[in-house]
Amino acid sequence: MEYKYIGKSYIRPDAISKVTGKAIYLDDIRLPGMLHAAILHPEYAHAKIINIDTSQAELMPGVVKVVTGKNCNFHYGDNIKDLIPIAVDRVRHIGEPVAAVVADTVQNAQKAVEKIRVVYEPLPVYVDARDAIKKDSTLIHEENGDYWHLPTLNPQPGTNVANLYQLKKGKGSGGFEDADVVIEEEFLYPLGSCAAIETHGSIVWFKEDNTIEAWSSSICPFIIRDDLAHSYGIPVSQVRVHIPEIGGCFGYKSDITVEQTIAYIASFVPGYPVKWVASRAEDFTSTLLGHGIRTKMKIGAKKNGKLVAIKAEILHSGGAYADTSVNVTIAATHNCTGPYEFEHCDLTGLTVYTNTPPVGAFRGYGHQESQFATERMMELLARKLGMDSFTLREMNYLSEGKVNSLGETMWKLNGDIKACSDKVKDSVFSKDKLNEDENYFYGRGFAAVMKSPKGAPFSTKGCYIKMNIDGSVNINMGGAEVGQGLRTIVAQIAGEALKIAPEKIRVYTELDTQFSPYEWQTIGSMFTTQGGRAIIRAADKLILILKQTAAQVLKTDVDFLDYDGEFVFLKNDPSVRVSIEEIARGYITSDGITIGEVAQSVSDARLPRYSNPDKNGQGSMGVEYTFGAQAAEIRIEKKTGKIFVDHFTSVFDVGQVINPLQIRGSVLGGVTISVGATLYEKVEFDTEGKILNPQFFQYHIPTNKEAPKQTIEFIENPGSVGPFGARGIGEHPVIGPAPAILNAIYDAVGVDFFEIPVTPEKMKKALLEKQ
Amino acid sequence: MVEKISFSINGQPREVEVDPEMMLIDVIREVLSLTGTKHGCDNATCGTCTVILNGKAVKSCNTPVKKASNGTLLTIEGLAKGKELHPIQKSIAESGAIQCGFCTPGIVMELYGLLESKPEASETEINNALNKHLCRCTGYEPIQDGALMAQKIIINRKNY
Predict the structure, then answer these.
(1) Closest CA to A478 of A505, A511, A456
(2) Does B134 contact A197 at a Cβ distance shorter than 8 Å?
């Protein structure tokens, strides 16, 4: 299909403000009378608080208030209300806020916070879910099961299991009776940090008129607003949340992270805005971590390679509070089949309380963690069956007419996994493999991937369009721009829908819950799909308003009119027309009487027929599945064990490319993040729950020279939900790199790894053992 | 101890009264309210705080302000001439190198330090310069593209 503005590389509208240093991020905001907070973190990852002595801190220069959680009596959270803004009588992880100082400057607050003395009584520390889940383990939350939680969640009182999710399809484990070959392995995708270059921060201001105003580097202003209103017993309308530019998210700035803590601190100094921005160490220790998922997987197949049954146990080290991890576990569980059909599924997901910072979203949201297992298992199974692994995959792909673990049928509109796989196979595996030389081993590895949509019963996205008197257009939405480029996409989709050049469309910049249309949260690679649909629905309404006014002016029926972005005109005679400038604010007749409505409209869109899981853990995620295939070409240095990803190839069926430059950027960055997870990144804990590498020089993320060269292609089988058939792409590129690289390691040297990161030390050791 | 320190920043003479050990980033951001220079880590690893001091790219988070005494500073705010962007800004904006934009000012200043003093820098030198910066969004390729586009414009400009 030919489009005028879709499929072209428009430059993002925020490029100039960002490249001139004028874009305003959270830490750039200065408010009159603003005070600064510093937060005390505990010496122990799990301990009872016996006493807090704040007397010395109170005497320090510049100190306005010292805050503890002594009288804090509320919990909060979006899925499970197990969170507290500040420790009351117990600390559960090493980054927990214990006390805080509000002072005139950051430096004075930090100096004073060091003077607070706390006496603790240490408790046993569990970093790994395998330890926390043991029968005699100390309960991290004695209240587990008593907290308010979504009706779909299933906490296990008297244990550290915050949620148990079970999915049964077909005969479940009974399906293994039909299998000729069964394999079983365990995989680990360890705790990592999203590590955006901008750390988290918030400003909260309790005002004398009993309203609350907040600013945060978050993608969920409406959740923050609802949650603060609930905690402080005021109407939701009385909380105003602003979101400035966000310096990267990658997951961990979703849900509620630091806002409730800063609000609690600010509530002690009403009338003054209080700002807190995490240091890099605090960003690692006091916000959300990601991953931490161990996958035990058993797969059964027929001799000919037909997959029959899958049993998986997803053991998720969910951190000290499970509000943000439970849904990651669930996503990891039902998506662990990868892009394959299994007639029988027995899938269990356990979110376990541990003594690490809370675990939450990380770009990919459970998919890369459990499909890491699936895509390694496909290679292991092919080897056991003596089959080519492409043939094995191709026999089992979730193609048109197949049914996934949730019981949803796949349609052509979900895209063509086989076509993606074929393109990668041709581009990477049709040439000869490089032979080992003096210095290096060479290998290639493949992974096919599936991404489910991420919905919730109220996961809608709103859009407000107003047309101006010159025919230009303003669009306001609630989607958070974290760098993904949604403002460009909004302009292009609206341009196409309204037949107006994107240059004439001004897209909203900052979010403000006082003015922004409602949006649940900007997560799950759903903005283009859902937000784009909302734009088209609003545009259709706006065009109808123009036609209704024009019908009166041109003395005809609405359905006899057409619209081209400049005029509304008679279908049979385009010369009988009225310009949109004349009708954008209603049409002024010669005697000054105005007829018709102002051309403005509101709409929203959600995933069609999203439903909660039923008693078997099945349900509808909302139609929009996306498939792709990826491959790594690697080199292993014999002397050091260092792995170089020389080339990485990705092909996704995205339905419709909206902006080629931006979509390439999404994949480039997504792949690079997961190359980091595969080769370098792991948040390291000691046995006492202290984080050993909370700095960029210790927690290494990929640099320019470590980023692979990439080949990126797209297939465009239009979807049914998104604008012009477009599907999401934000998270998808992160799913395949880990299994593709580990499959390539096996191809290169015949060694199987089951855990990441594969560091040079581990690789070197494996090479020596093999010799 | 507070001292008077003078320097030129973005073409304007300024005098600040601060502790001479105060880091340049804090003077730039907190004293002078030039918030384009970003704070991304606490130990000179991420490169977002890079500014130009006496023609060279330096990390302002580990440069005490006394080193700028009587010197010449340039920050991201001083690069464009009115609405006319510097070639590096223009190229970086067009090559897809900007996503969240938080690392952008530091990278632009790094490239300015390299390409304005050495327009014929090799691709290796450009890649070495970019390797001092962390970007979590782009996978770096569009930044390399932008750097090479900018280099062409700068070479052509110098030839006239």
Answers:
(1) A511
(2) yes
| CB nearest to A19's CB, from B42, B104, B134 | B104
> Which pTM was predicted?
0.97
Residue identified by tokens 């600064």 is: A36
Asked if B136 has any chain A CB less than 8 Å from its own CB, the reply is: yes
Which residue from A11, A247, A696 is facing B93, i.e. has the nearest CB? A11
Chain A residues close to B48, C-beta within 8 Å:
197
Domain coordinates in residue numbering, chain A? 27-123+199-246+253-285, 290-396+409-455+611-770, 462-605
Q: Which CATH architecture has domain A462-605?
A: 2-Layer Sandwich (3.30)
Question: How far, in Å, CA of A378 to CA of A308, rounded?
Answer: 13
DSSP assignment of A24-84, as one string? Answer: PBGGG---TT-EEEEEE--SSSSEEEEEEE-HHHHTSTTEEEEEESTT----B-SSB--B-
CATH topology of domain A27-123+199-246+253-285: Aldehyde Oxidoreductase; domain 3 (3.90.1170)
What letter would DSSP give residue A495? H
Per-residue pLDDT at B160 = 61
Q: Residues B102-123: pLDDT tens digits? A: 999 999 999 999 999 999 999 9
> Are A248 and B99 within 8 A, CB to CB?
yes
Structure tokens at A516: 């922004």
Same fold, A27-123+199-246+253-285 and A462-605: no
Find the CB nearest A21 among B40, B76, B93.
Answer: B76
Query: B3-78 is classed in which CATH architecture?
Result: Roll (3.10)
Percent of chain B residues past pLDDT 90, beyond the cut: 97
Question: Which residue ranges in chain A fall short of pLDDT 50?
Answer: none
Distance between CA atoms of B80 and B89, rounded to whole angstroms?
8
Write down the pLDDT at residue A621. 79
Class of domain B87-159: mainly alpha
SS3 A662: helix
* Predicted local distance difference test score (pLDDT) of residue B1: 85
Rounded distance, CA A535 to CA A492, Å?
10
Residues 6 or more apart whose CB falls under 8 angstroms from that of A507 comprise: A13, A475, A477, A487, A490, A491, A494
Please give the sequence-ordered ranges of beta strands (E in DSSP) within A145-282, or none if there are none: 161-169, 181-192, 201-206, 212-216, 239-243, 273-277
Residue B10 contacts A, CB cutoff 8 Å: no
Q: What is the pLDDT of residues A21-71, one digit of tens each?
A: 999 999 999 999 999 999 999 999 999 999 999 999 999 999 999 999 999
Q: Which helix (H) or strand (E) holds A300?
A: strand A290-301
CATH of domain A290-396+409-455+611-770: 3.30.365.10
Measured CA to CA in angstroms, residue A357 lies from A94, A139, A155, A192, A640 at distances of 7, 16, 19, 11, 34
pLDDT at A236: 98
CB atoms within 10 A of CB A117: 14
Q: Which tokens in the block code for residue A515?
A: 């003015």
Q: Is B136 close to A19, i.e. CB distance below 8 A? A: no
Listed in order, the ranges of chain B carrying CATH 1.10.150.120 are 87-159
Residues spanned by CATH 3.10.20.30 within chain B? Answer: 3-78
Minimal-distance CA residue of chain B relative to A676: B136
ipTM score assigned to the predicted complex: 0.98
Query: CA torsion B27→B32→B36→B42, rounded to 10°?
Result: 20
Q: So what's the pLDDT on residue A623? A: 75
Coil, strand or helix: which one is A403?
strand
> A283 to chain B: nearest residue by CA?
B41
Smallest Cβ distance to B101: which of A9, A14, A665?
A14
- Residues from chain A that touch B51, judged by Cβ atoms under 8 A, are none
**Contact residues for A688 (Cβ-Cβ < 8 A; gap 6+):** A44, A45, A125
Q: State whether B127 and A705 contact (CB < 8 Å).
A: yes
